[in-house]
Amino acid sequence: MNGFPPILAEINNLSKDQITWLLYSAKRFKLGVVPVGKYQISDTHQPIIATSFLENSTRTKHSFVIAIQKLGAMYVDFNAETSSLKKGESLEETLLTLSHQGVDLCIIRTSVSHQFDEFKTNPPIRIINGGDGINQHPSQALLDLMTFIDDGGEVKGRTVAIIGDCIHSRVAHSLMELLPQFGCKILLAGPEECLPKQLDSRLDTSMFHVTTDTEEAILKSDFLYLLRIQKERHSGPAAYYESYLHKHGVSLSRLEGLMANGKISKVPRIYHPGPANVGVELDMALLKSRHYRAHAQVTNSVYMRMSIIKAMLTNLGDVSSA
Q: How confident is the model over 2-44, as pLDDT tens digits?
């Protein structure tokens, strides 16, 4: 297996073997196979890891911080609002400064899509993309795959319906690169204005289906992955959001009705990257039900991000070193 890249900007930066290793390593962390006290990345050097979140975050930032601390690394929170970025310094120069101060890895979230393209060939520091605009969110997709496998075993031959604002969802874009590698088909569903007019030419189109019919998506899928309508990226009237749940959202009563009518054999598991807009893409009854698996995703986020950080800092290349 080749060494891990110095920058994880998108799913395609990783090979399938590397992704499989991350899943294996994250599971070992979760099961406690690696005892507490052995999580440290190095016996001779305490790594310094910085987070720089230029866009708001709760789940992603906190899970990375917890992962850093569990690994025994030193944590630095880089606040862009009080940094030289506000004085006009470039992101590259800022990252070079952090590197010369001894920072080994920086986790960055930004509102600018493809912010990391300039660093693909020669990054100034090791970088994990914590979400860049509407482009990608690779660590979220990886922890989602971990959760699918935890819940249902093999994903090969199954279908995940991604329902909602697929155009503006960086998570959806990462899942679209990730899941087909493991034989999992993707059904994109939602309002027409939230669906891609055409798929990225790099994708295997035979693994995708696009529909505006939410019921079709439910009937043809094994897992439902709900996305919020990103109001900050839309200018629709309030009435649009008020009618969304009925037209395109998923409620517990809707799923139970389909089961009562014999259209589905059981209520499927529901996933969401968060934060959820209750009353828009789902209702409170579904969120409170046992079918809603977002909390399992949050739990797995710590272990997957531990796995990613460890892999990038130690350049792990084989399963025996997990």
A: 788 999 999 999 999 999 999 999 999 999 987 666 666 777 7
Q: Which residue has the tokens 């084989």?
A: 318
> With contact defined as beta carbons under 8 Å apart, do 268 and 217 qualify?
no
**What residues make up the domain containing 283?**
138-294
Q: Is 51 in contact with 106 (CB distance < 8 Å)?
A: yes
Q: Please state the φ and ψ torsions of residue 175, each to the nearest 5 degrees.
A: -60, -35
pTM of the predicted model over 0.85: yes
Give the domain CATH number at 161.
Answer: 3.40.50.1370
Number of domains in the chain: 2
